[in-house]
Specification:
About 40% of the residues lie in helices and about 0% in strands. The protein is elongated.
């Protein structure tokens, strides 16, 4: 094993911790351009969504049909004093409306839209 003084020195190696940063100084490749967005009304947004592709409609319909198999269990849990909470991507309004129409048409229920940013408690 070579002793410390006997180690060969490589002139290309940095001699201090700042050498790395000095050697890697280069012009930033990040753009300084700013993006400009125009505000879109809710009506325009919904119209744009309607024009878009409907690739997942069949899958969403199938998933909702599968969840409808849980309606009797949901009804039982509500009758025992529990609450239902649905979460995740996408609207659950159609699914929950179907549940309410089938099981809670004569009862009281509360539907809270968690995505409503103006919702105050």
């Amino acid at each position: 094993m070579l002793e410390e003084e006997e180690l060969p020195l490589d002139d290309n190696l940095p001699l201090n911790s700042e050498a790395f940063f000095e050697a890697s100084k280069s012009k930033s490749i990040t753009s300084n351009a700013t993006l400009h967005f125009t505000e879109m009304s809710r009506e325009d947004y919904l119209a744009a969504l309607e024009k878009g592709p409907k690739t997942h409609e069949v899958m969403i319909r199938d998933l909702n049909d599968r969840y409808k198999n849980y309606f009797p269990q949901w009804h039982f849990e509500l009758s025992q004093g529990f609450n239902l909470i649905t979460y995740g991507y996408g609207s659950k309004l159609e699914l929950l409306s179907s549940f309410v129409d089938r099981y809670l048409a004569n009862g009281l229920f509360s539907l809270v839209f968690g995505s409503d940013l103006q919702l105050l408690f």
